[in-house]
Each structure stands twice: as structure tokens, then as C-alpha cells.
Specification:
The complex is a heterodimer of chains A (about 210) and B (about 200). With about 210 residues, chain A is mainly alpha-helical. Chain A has helices at about 5-10, 20-40, 50-55, 55-80, 90-110, 110-115, 125-150, 155-175, 185-210. Helices cover about 75% and strands about 0% of the residues of chain A. Chain A is elongated, with a radius of gyration of 20 Å. With about 200 residues, chain B is mainly alpha-helical. Chain B has 2 domains: about 15-120, RNA polymerase sigma factor, region 2, helix turn helix motif (Rna Polymerase Sigma Factor, Chain: A), CATH 1.10.1740; about 135-205, Arc Repressor Mutant, subunit A, CATH 1.10.10. Chain B contains 9 helices and no strands. In chain B, α3 packs antiparallel against α4. The radius of gyration of chain B is 21 Å and the shape is flat. The N and C termini of chain B lie far apart (about 75 Å).
């Protein structure tokens, strides 16, 4: 087909489109987040001692750290669906945030960190924790996949990584309300494994979804 | 959160730097016209869209001329035009259309280069009959050397109008020179080439 014929074809019967905006994508993801959190909590998944837990620094540490990483990851993903956007700087920023989270956890929950015996890890509970984080991340991975598919990203690996981090952080954030363990050492290790697994899987899948 | 959004928005690469070197005020005028045409296209104005795509095709031809073999240029331009059509809702009217366009053009170019890596190639037999392009190559090299004696503005328009067959208006849109200036530069450039060739012949 000649270019001129293609142009004639494309411009014939042109339909108006509504431009994609940052806020329309953000609204969609926030609604998804609120629905999942609401469903999870209304299904009675609260930890039984939530009234006691809200007084623990480790509870607020994981809630704030994961919330911040999830929000920044989601924001970076939405910004990167624009063809002129790139995720490289955002990824460095998120990496810094993760490092800050570990450091702040060490600082605020220091009395609980030491000593570090292997018995504190509780392998069965750890496995359950990893499994639940992965399950809770799936809706966000799908939601972010839809946002990416609708956009036109040009940095595929970068956007797949930021989306994977955001989905993992949001899944872990919701799980925080149900997780009965407050040991910072356990949280740092098991949540990192869960989030890492989500990141690896999402990155592989979303890279293909992002291609256009 | 708002400050994070603003900070992250500043991480845009200047994709437009990959384009042709053009006359700045003219390119700014053209950029503003393209922005308006794309906004009209998003609202369903097919006439503006047709005009925009026609101009974009010329711009893309110049962009890919230095990056791809001749045989691949048409296909790639058409692929970018289809991509623009499919993703036209992602253009943000508050920003430059040209930057958006060149980001897509660059992405499609890199995507094509990546796909070439994975595509299998077949070796040709030694006895495969092919025409001899020796003369054409020598001619092309000679023309390049001759054009190098001219100013950038003159060699650009001669290349576009006389060698690639673009109209004066199309060459004007690509280079950012006015149509009158394109005509003058073509005329003066050819005159300079003729006098250069005469001197060379006399020297021989």
C-alpha cells in the first residue's frame, strides 16, 4: 500500500478520541486499590489484635514504607506510558526509597532487630506471607497492565519494572492489615521475597504487554 | 505526592534532538501548527488529520533517510503512521506534538533494529545474479563530494528537491526554509556546482 493511500484510509471517518490524562489513569488505579482493600478487609481478614498493633512502630513502618513505594511506583508507571517518558530516574528513586525503608526500619525498630536467630523466621508463616502477597498483587498487575496497554510506552523494561514494584508494594500493603507478625527481621526478609517474586513475574509479563 | 509528580515529569528525554537540523523560528511555527492540527484530529477533524499525516510522512522520510536502508523507509513510515493513529489519544495537547512524534519514530526505529536481530537471514549462492551497482555507487559518491562544497542550506534543498523528488513546499516544510528561499538556494547551489565543475575541467 502506498503511504498516500494509507493516509487517506486513516483519515477517513475519523472518530473523536478522549485524550488520556495522568489523573484518569490514577483514578482508575486508586479505585482498584480501594475496591481490593475494601473486599479484603470486609472478608474479615483483619488481624485479631489490630487495636494493639497500631501502637507498634513496626506496623507503621511497613505500612508507610510500602504505601510510599507503591504510590511512587504507580505514579512513575503512569508517567512512563507517555511515549516521551522514561522510567530510569524513577527506578533509581524507588531503589533509594527501598534502601531508606530498610534504614528507617533499622532505626525505629532497632531494639527488635537483634539478635537474629533463624528460629525467628517461622518458615511456614513466611511461606503463607509470600503466597498471600503474590495473590494480592495480581489485581494490581492486571490493572497496571491495562493502563500500560492503553498508553504508548517506549521504555518497555523500565515501565515493566516500575509496574512490578508498584503491584508488589500494593499487594504487601494490603497484607499488612492481616499479617500477625511484627518482628522487623521477619518482615524485611519475607516481604522482600514476596515482593521480589511479584517483581520478577510482573516484569516478564508486562514487558510483552507493553510492546506495541 | 503532587511534588513527586512534578519531579518525575521533568525526566523527559529530548527526542526532538534526533530530528533534522532546522531553522528555529520556522520549526517553532510548524510545531505550533502541528499541535493545533493534532488537537483538531483528536476532536475528529479528518481534514486537519489528513494534512498533519501528510506533513508528518515527509518529516519521517527525512528522519529515516539517515537511519535505514532505502527499501525499509516506506514500510517504517507507514508503521509509524498507523501507530500515531492507534495511539492518538495518548497525545497530551498541552505538550509538543513534534516531541511526541519523534519519540514514537525513535521507538519504532529501535524496535525495527531489534526485530532485524532476531529475524533469520539466508545466505545467497555465490552465483546469484545481481546487477552491477558500481557506477551508481561512484555517481552517488561524486554527488556527495560535490554537495559538500556547498553550504548546508543549499545542499539540503538540492538533495531533497533534485535527488529525492520532493516538491518545493515539501522541502520547505522539512528544512524550515521558506518556499522562495528553497528556490533561491536550489538555483544558487546548482550555479555554484556548474562553475565548480568548469574550473575542474579547465584544470584537467
Amino acid at each position: 500500500m502506498q503511504t498516500r493511500t494509507l493516509i487517506d484510509h486513516l483519515s477517513r471517518d475519523l472518530k473523536p478520541v478522549r485524550p488520556r490524562t495522568f489523573f484518569s489513569d490514577a483514578r482508575f488505579l486508586v479505585i482498584l486499590f480501594v475496591i481490593e482493600l475494601g473486599l479484603y478487609l470486609s472478608a474479615g481478614m483483619f488481624r485479631p489484635d489490630i487495636a494493639f498493633a497500631i501502637h507498634l512502630p513496626s506496623f507503621w513502618w511497613k505500612l508507610l514504607s510500602l504505601g510510599l513505594i507503591g504510590a511512587v511506583g504507580g505514579t512513575a508507571t503512569i508517567l512512563s506510558v507517555d511515549p516521551t517518558g522514561t522510567s530510569r530516574r524513577s527506578l533509581r528513586f524507588i531503589l533509594g526509597l527501598v534502601a531508606m525503608s530498610f534504614l528507617s526500619g533499622w532505626f525505629f525498630c532497632m531494639p527488635h532487630w537483634l539478635p537474629l536467630p533463624a528460629s525467628r523466621l517461622s518458615p511456614m508463616q513466611g511461606l503463607h506471607c509470600v503466597y498471600t502477597i503474590i495473590l494480592l498483587s495480581i489485581p494490581f498487575t492486571i490493572g497496571l497492565g491495562l493502563v500500560i496497554r492503553r498508553g504508548a510506552p517506549t521504555d518497555l523494561e523500565g515501565i515493566a519494572s516500575t509496574a512490578g514494584i508498584a503491584a508488589a508494594a500494593w499487594g504487601a500493603f494490603i497484607f499488612t492489615f492481616a499479617c500477625p507478625i511484627d518482628d522487623p527481621f521477619y518482615i524485611a526478609l519475607c516481604y522482600s521475597i514476596g515482593c521480589g517474586a511479584v517483581l520478577i513475574c510482573s516484569r516478564r509479563i508486562l514487558k510483552y504487554i507493553a510492546h506495541w | 505526592m503532587a511534588s513527586t509528580v512534578v519531579a518525575l515529569r521533568h525526566q523527559r528525554p529530548s527526542a526532538v534532538d534526533d530530528g533534522l537540523r532546522v531553522n528555529k523560528p520556522a520549526s517553532e511555527r510548524r510545531g505550533r501548527a502541528w499541535d493545533a492540527m493534532m488537537v483538531a484530529a483528536q476532536n475528529g477533524n479528518s481534514l486537519a488529520y489528513h494534512r498533519l499525516l501528510s506533513q508528518v510522512a515527509v518529516r519521517l522520510r527525512a528522519y529515516y533517510a539517515r537511519r535505514l536502508p532505502q527499501a525499509m523507509i516506506d514500510d517504517t513510515i507507514q508503521e509509524v503512521l498507523v501507530a500515531i493513529h492507534m495511539k492518538r489519544h495518548t497525545y497530551d495537547p498541552s505538550r509538543s506534538f513534534e516531541v511526541w512524534l519523534m519519540a514514537i519514530a525513535r521507538y519504532k526505529w529501535i524496535d525495527l533494529l531489534r526485530s532485524l536481530k532476531t529475524k533469520a537471514t539466508e545466505a545467497l549462492d555465490d552465483g546469484f545474479p545481481i546487477p552491477d551497482h558500481g557506477e551508481a555507487v561512484v555517481n552517488a559518491r561524486t554527488i556527495d563530494q560535490l554537495l559538500a562544497t556547498l553550504s548546508r542550506a543549499q545542499s539540503d534543498v538540492i538533495r531533497l528537491v533534485k535527488l529525492q523528488g520532493l516538491s518545493i513546499e515539501e522541502a520547505s516544510a522539512v528544512t524550515g526554509q521558506s518556499a522562495e528561499l528553497v528556490k533561491v538556494n536550489v538555483h544558487r547551489g546548482i550555479k555554484k556546482l556548474i562553475s565548480f565543475l568548469r574550473i575542474e575541467r579547465n584544470a584537467d
